[in-house]
Amino acid sequence: MSEHTIIPVHPQSAEYSLLTPSQLQAMTRRAERDPDGFWLDQAERIHWHSNPTRAFCGSFQDDVEINWYHDGTLNASVSCIDSHLGDRADQVALISHRDGTDEAEKLTYRMLHERVCRLANALQYLGVSRGDRVAISLPMVSEAPIAMLACARIGAVHVVLFGGLSAEAIAERLVDSGARVVITANEIARGAKRIPLKHIMDEALKKAGAESAVETVLVLRTTDAPIAMLPERDLDFHDFVDWFEPDCIPEIMNAEDPLFLLYTSGSTGKPKAVVHTTGGYMVWAAYTMGMVYTHRPNDVLWCTADVAWITGHTSVVYGPLANGSTTMMFDGLPSYPQPGRWWELIERHKVTMLFTAPTAIRSLMREGDDLVNRYDLSSLRLLGTAGEPISPDAWMWYHDVVGKGRCPVVDTWWQTETAGIMLGPIPGAQKLKPGSATMPLPGVSMVLTDTKGDVIEGAGEGCLCVTRSWPGQARTLWKDHARFQQTYFSFSPGLYFTGDGARRDADGYYWITGRMDDVINISGHRIGTAEIEEAVGADRRITECAAVGVPHSVKGQALVVFAIARDEQTSITPEDITRQVSLAIGRYAAPDEVFIVPDLPRTRSGKIVRRLLRKIASGELDTLGDLSMLSDADSVDMLINTVWKEE
Ligand code: WTA
To answer: AMP-dependent synthetase/ligase domain location, by residue (predicted)?
Structure first.
């Protein structure tokens, strides 16, 4: 398999695409020629209270100001729910399949409207109003999208927190976001494991202390596990919420009012919250999902991403609902209680579009083809991936074994900051190349530059940048616009730098080569090595450390930490360091391997050479390259001995 493999436009293309290849080309040209007109047309995909008359205002220069549809007003929950009540009130909007149960909960658009309105009224009763932040830490159950949409209904800004975060990491985010209300659950079931969500939240609130603005915690009971409730702060979700009226007048928001904050990792230690606003984000969710996932009536889209990530926000909640589709959620694991669990669910719920991460594909692939072939997957018409590079062989397995060669695979490239798909195929209108995220969507102005920021024309390899704003672009970082400018616009003024490298082939197809900064991607989870190093370095027994990502056959990358103990008498073990990272960030960020070493390879100016650490950790010992720039070349032998001594 090579990059020369080309999958022609699938023969049943009429089933997939809303566009012919020539219509797609015309659309791309129009977006280039008349961006304002193009994006105003795309704005019609969602419901506005008052239509915008301008698309983009602002500039990537100087202070960087990004402003879309600024005179439009709307409410995101109206676009996702009320706008469908006329013609599809009784269509299922949300299927929520709980692990360990046989029957899924199915909510029609009418039922979703009622549930969202009750919670919106309850939040208002608790004093939440426009602009207030509400933190949501829930498993993949229907209350998660309901909570997001209820916030949107009253103009509150949701902050969804990943269930794998430690109490310390949650505390930091609660304080930084200034959330007034928390919506959480007693626990999350992950296969046979249980994560005591409420207990972790209690710890987080204790740690945050007076710095936190949290007044109320709504607690959903997802299992029978007992929960300790603090009478003056905690409320049982359903006991409280179900009393409220099933209708709530939506707050009319300006297009540029924030819809949500989402924390993500960058190349410095502190967590940063990306800010997405209402109008542009909603247009972007509807446009990208509509173009690539080509939603139609009776489609059931199952995006397996956690709602706490941008894929969950856009592909589980806002995108499918804005397009009037049926979205499915499942709170279990692919292989629990049996390895064919996902295929069983696709058969049962007649899923038409499956969207998952390459990590999941790689681990399902390991279970063998027979397992997949035991299930009737004929409902599927489209397969998608995002979040990390997919190798051509995993792509082909997904295409041939899961999709039986009938379903196009859409490999989509995007980021928390882009809010939706930037690179991805328009199925039925473009041929596919396994391993390539295809081309920019119409209206996305992607370029490659060299490391000085000069644009590379034609085929070549370089830094992936965007020249023009798009409606779903993050507007800023919460309370830190300077960091926003510095992170994304200082590489080459006037260009948004994604942090990724890519290659463009002679047909204009993009091949992502990976992050160029210190961000690593483990099982689709984005983790900053600086954040890990800060967590490890917080232990006084450590003087210095370095975290690197190395290739891993299932997880994409694995995390390896090298740490120097304060002195030889210090007793610190790799397990201590793993525990330290789990406490500071969460178990999902725990290193795969930790090495306590006497020193690290450095340049003569003292800078740690991470490139060498990566090579040593991944066993690429014959390509270590020139070591003459090191202050002490012997440190390399010492490291090799430490890492590979047991092998
Ligand atoms: C990586 C996830 C290769 C990339 C949606 C990006 C990908 C980071 C792809 C963002 C893809 C995302 N192929 N790499 N199709 N999609 N990435 O913010 O490095 O969690 O910068 O958003 O994931 O991760 P994030």
So the answer is: 88-468
